[in-house]
Amino acid sequence: MARLLDLPVEVLPLILTHILKSHHLTLICLVSHTFLYYARPLLYKRIFIYAWHRQGKTKVIQLFTTLARKPELAALVGVLGSRLRALASQMRDFPKALSVEEQDRLMDLCITGLKNCINLRSCTWTRDGSLTTPLLRALLSSSTLQEFSLNGHYEGHYDPTLLLQFSRLQKLTIIMPSSDIISLLPAWLGACSETLKSLSLICKASPRLTDEILSSAAESLSSLQRLHLAGCTKITHKGILAVMRVNPSLVSLGLEGLSPTFDMEELSGHCTSHDLTSLLRSLTLTMPSSGNIDKWFNQVLSLVKESPLEEFQIYTVGGDLVTGRALSEDFVARIVGAHSHRLRKFAVQRLRTSMQVIGMICQNCPMLEQLYVVLEDRNWGALGQCLSTASNLRMLHINFPPDTLGEDERPILSESEMLFIAQHCGPRLVQFGASTRVRLVERTAFRDGDGEIHTGMKLVPYESPEIPEQFLVQQA
Q1: Which of 92, 323, 370, 474 has minimal CB crowding within 10 Å?
Q2: What pLDDT digit, counting tens, does each position of 299-310 carry?
Q3: Which pLDDT score is estimated for 428?
Q4: From which domain of life does this come (predicted)?
Q5: Residues 17 and 85 reside in one and the same domain
Q6: Range of the structural domain that residue 133 is part of
Q7: Cα–Cα distance between 16 and 435 in angstroms, integer?
Q8: pLDDT tens figures, 316-339
Q9: Does 58 share its domain with 147?
Q10: Is residue 88 domain-resident?
Q11: Average pLDDT estimate for 48-69
């Protein structure tokens, strides 16, 4: 009987790319020198440490000890074979509750480790209060860094002017920026003006970022392709238009939880008359909590009338779901009617989604790959029938209104019901989630008693170190 070791070595890299858990890759590295050669770059390519990881703080220390003492391994961070690939070094659980001596030791390890990551392309350092001047200087030593996500809550732990030296960034995300960081924003964006393609500013009902600041930075955003603002409560249509006037090439726009005085009619009218959304492929919006909602929906339709829209995400702010707000069937019919042949993603959060809406989306969008909905109707058979028409669906996630969960907190969907629904989806489904559970779809081939080959399906735990996309939707 043929064994795995009998396979041509050229096949091994293709097999290993399907191994998701770092623990499994570690075991594979121990098989042989050949397995080590191909598995070790995958093990170090993407590093994720989150606050909920077991012994997360210990893992941070162990990680940077390795990167500091083994520069040959640190150099693999970001490398796949002989080709450079993206790194995501996610230090979301950087330990703070340490003694002074332990902090100094860890800081030295971090600085040396970061300097050894000579192929670092993307770094996320969002632990509040953990960023320091020496760490920033260590990151600046990387000539390959293109993506930077940081917590902008400045508490005097570092020199903020150092941020101006990150001038080759293609993607910048700032979470909870303080006034000190916001005051530097126009100059920082100016330094990155030739390379910056994506900008995300994520606040929590912050009044610090204003139309004036965004307008003053607009000229530096002429190369921008993706703009995402969340929780910036002083930003109105005026600030957004200031950016779009100098950059009509945006392909992705996220406007979430902005000013109550944001005028969608003004934005839509100006964009339409000046052809500012002709390249827009992705739009994320929060529905206003008051006013004429039907009129607002019409303005949104006008905004994307001439856009090659592929992704649409909508939700309400806060806990509005409990009040019974639902996504307008008329709006869905019209946006699907205009963009059905292109839509690949339709995501609804905090808005009840009727079975009619789900059926409308699935039946009329042949390219649909991702569907996220809030479902009130528990007719799983009807849901399965709707989903069966979405032959290209790859990712499905279902949430439920909080007032339907019941007091016993048992999941509305059992594992068997999840499998029943997944079996009604097309052959391309790879991921299915319900509320906080996410499962991967696994298919196996088997022979029956007559020798006929059949395909079976089962749902297995989600093993990727990356957070599922539906949990990354910003909900200001």
Answers
A1: 323
A2: 999 999 999 999
A3: 96
A4: Eukaryota
A5: no
A6: 46-151
A7: 30
A8: 876 545 456 889 999 999 999 999
A9: yes
A10: yes
A11: 77
